[in-house]
Amino acid sequence: MRIIDADGHVAEGASLAVEAMQRWPDFIAPRSDGRALVIEGRNYPESEGPGAGCPREHGLSRAPGIDYTSPEGVLGDADRDHIDTMVLYPSLGLCAPTLEDPEFATGFARLYNQWIADYCRSSGGRLRGIAVTPIEHGAVAIDVMREAKELGLVATHVPPALKTRNLDHPDLDPFYAAAVELDMPLGIHGAPGMHLPKVGVDRFTNYIQVHCVSFPFDQMTAMTALISGGVFDRHPDLRVAFLEAGVGWVPFFIDRLHEHFEKRGDWIEGGWRRDPQEYLRAGNIWTTCEPEEPILPGVIDVLGDDFIMFASDYPHWDGEWPHSTEHLRNRPDIGDESRAKIGGLNAQRFYALN
């Protein structure tokens, strides 16, 4: 069974930050205590106050022997965890959609995309990078995404919402059309403390409470916008993955959306035209799972196994490395066909991997 990690992360380390500070000294600098970067006057991560993120020194796994400091170290860690291919989402790079100065935001996104492409190049295709874009700044985001496709990046990161717009805003239709044209899937990924729009987490200042709430609320917000706002009707070949919230919430929320579509769907002018489950069956909706989730067999029973992908969240503190794949490989309550799809075949289709 080929195992593809559909949502791992790269720990960018100093090299990306140093290059950015050299290029844009007026926009990015280290905080005096070393606990954050100060970008456009904001702390990344912001580890205090409403919606607090993880303090920088606690974000990464401390499992004995883990080595996320180089591509070679990551590949060695993948071997220990029986992972064949890792799709790497950003860590610091998740800040890209939040940058306010258009020229800086565009430059930073291009720098990140080139950096992650170079990082993955020596891996023989085992490490695959995810692009970032200045999505708040209009048409230039399409140019950056097109360049990222040429660099060999396999998807583009999209935040769960924008500063003043949801993901069904008509201004984003050209971006979605370009993603379809480029065969570039989109990965929706939030991150507390990174100045992405907050959904509910502003009620908490303790990072652990924020972490409990942030990822599922983010994904429900994004899914509501994309389905009920008619995005998949306007762009029927668009592929979107809802990431880092597990899969247990999906049957509940698809059913909730179904009820609202059935009883009051016509209240949304220009919105959804089909039952929410049809977008899932059509290949618009994908998600990742943590393979130890007790509800996984129930999700397969209710919604099928064609949209679920394995994710490790390597090398973050809440990941299970070097045991991320154990449940997937060994649990007896899912069949071998489902195991193979979740383990790698679905991610191979979503990311269009060889």
From TrEMBL:
It holds the Pfam family Amidohydro_2. One of its GO terms (biological process) is secondary metabolic process. Residues 100-352 form the Amidohydrolase-related domain. Keywords: Lyase. InterPro entries: ACMSD, Amidohydro-rel, Metal_Hydrolase. GO terms for cellular component: cytoplasm. It comes from the Bacteria. The keyword Chloroplast does not apply. GO terms for molecular function: carboxy-lyase activity; hydrolase activity. This is Amidohydrolase-related domain-containing protein. The lineage of its organism: Bacteria, Bacillati, Actinomycetota, Actinomycetes, Mycobacteriales.
